[in-house]
Structure formats: C-alpha cells, structure tokens
Amino acid sequence: MTVTTPARRLVEEYYALIDGGNLPAACELMTEDVKLTFANAEPVHGRAAAEASIKYVLDHCDRITHRVVTFFETGDADGARTAFYEIRITYVLKNGKVLDNPGAVVATVDAQGRFTEQRLYGDLNEVFVP
C-alpha cells in the first residue's frame, strides 16, 4: 500500500507534468528562489535557472518517464517537509538509445507545498553522449 503524503503528492504531480511535456507547469511547483542540483553539477538558483537546467536534459530526449520506487518523508514544526526517494528514470534519447537509470533525490517542500530545493543524484553521462 502506498501512503500519499503532502510531499509525495507534489512529487507525483511534478513528474507527471514533466513526463507529459509540461515543464513550465512543473516549474510552477517550485518557489521563485528554488535551488536545484543535478548530480555533480553546480547548483542553480531560481525557478528560471532550474527550468533551463531541466530543459537542457529534456532537449536530449524524445520522451522521459519517472517512477518513484521508495519514498520517505519527514515534517518540520513550520509545516515544511523533507522527502528522500529512490527514482527510476527512463530516457528515450533523440539518438534512439533507451536508458533506464536509477537515482536518488532529496527534496525540501515549504508549508505552501512548493519545492524549495531538489538535489538529484544519478549518472546522467550517457544522456549526453552523442
């Protein structure tokens, strides 16, 4: 049985929007000053920079699918949430290659239900290989 918590609902909505090709709507689920870190890349700050960073990955794909495998969430006294989850991402690349990569994410969500930070850990090297 999957328990749907506030952060889990946000994560599922976020990935459904990205997988459905609606990156702008997905980024509206972030605070204006969000911090996003992809693997070992330098963090980017702000919603526009986060959207550009994600778009860079998506520009290499014909399709992408995210599946949350395990999910843990903690709450803070101020209503914020911290989520830790394992994810599988299927990339259908423009070069025809299909990758199924594991990853892990640490995300913080404010009391209004928006991402304030996402730290994504996984190997994206093959996504960028021609």
Notes on the protein architecture:
The structure is a single chain. The chain is of the alpha+beta class and 130 residues long. The chain has one domain (6-128): Nuclear Transport Factor 2, Chain: A (Roll), CATH 3.10.450. It has three helices and six strands. A six-stranded mixed sheet has the order 2-1-6-5-4-3, covered by helices on one side. It is globular and about 45 Å long.
User: Which segments are poorly predicted (pLDDT under 50) over 5 or more consecutive residues?
Assistant: none
**Global outline:** globular
Report the span from N to C terminus: 41 Å
Structurally, the number of domains stands at 1
Give me the side-by-side strand order of the main sheet.
2-1-6-5-4-3
Name the CATH architecture: Roll
- Following the backbone from N to C, one meets helices and strands in this order, namely HHEEHEEEE
Number of extended strands: 6
Major sheet description: 6 strands, mixed
Structural classification: alpha+beta
Domain SnoaL-like: 11-117
GO molecular function: isomerase activity
Organism: Micromonospora yangpuensis
Protein name: Ketosteroid isomerase-related protein
Quick summary of this structure?
The chain has 130 residues and is of the alpha+beta class.
Task: List the keywords.
SnoaL-like; 6-stranded mixed beta sheet; isomerase; Ketosteroid isomerase-related protein; isomerase activity; 130 residues; alpha+beta; 24% helix; globular; 3 helices; 6 strands; Nuclear Transport Factor 2, Chain: A
